[in-house]
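Summary for the lay section of the report: proteins are chains of building blocks that fold into shapes. Here we show the chain for Carbohydrate sulfotransferase and then a coded description of the shape we predicted for it.
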Amino acid sequence: YRRLRARETRLSEFNQTEIKAMLGSYTKVLFVRDPFHRLIATFLQGMGISPSFSSFVQEVLDSGMHDSSAAWKPLVSLCRPCLVQYDYVVMFGFLRQELGHLLRRAGLPAGSLLPELTDSQVQWTYRWLSEQMFSELSAQQKQRLSHFYRWDLAAFPFSGSFLSD
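The coded shape description reads as follows.
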């Protein structure tokens, strides 16, 4: 799209006609991940300065929606899935299967382009980490996290999420 070549521009800076034209000219792919897993990954990558997962979660909850980092901000607020009609939604944990399908649909050789992904090991590891880290949280933190991510949980099928319970 002509204006995108000049500089990096946020979608919200365009008018509705331009947005519709741009989005109609692209294949739109949204990669989604369980919000609790995103919190764990952010904490483990050291993006929070908290000494414990529980205190990190408290920082996230205290920051609220307005001051939150994109690393843990709800996906619905970042990607606007109700406004943008994505062509594909790829779930973390099923990357090998879904990326292969996506590459084949794009006419690309799926096998040679995909990195070695072991989805079942990733799922097992995150299940174990989730159990450990969820047990560190107070009942109030669990409830507030579920509320903080309520729209993500409603928009995407995170059936095994600890925040859905």
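Put simply, here is one thing we learned. The beta strands are 29-32, 88-91.
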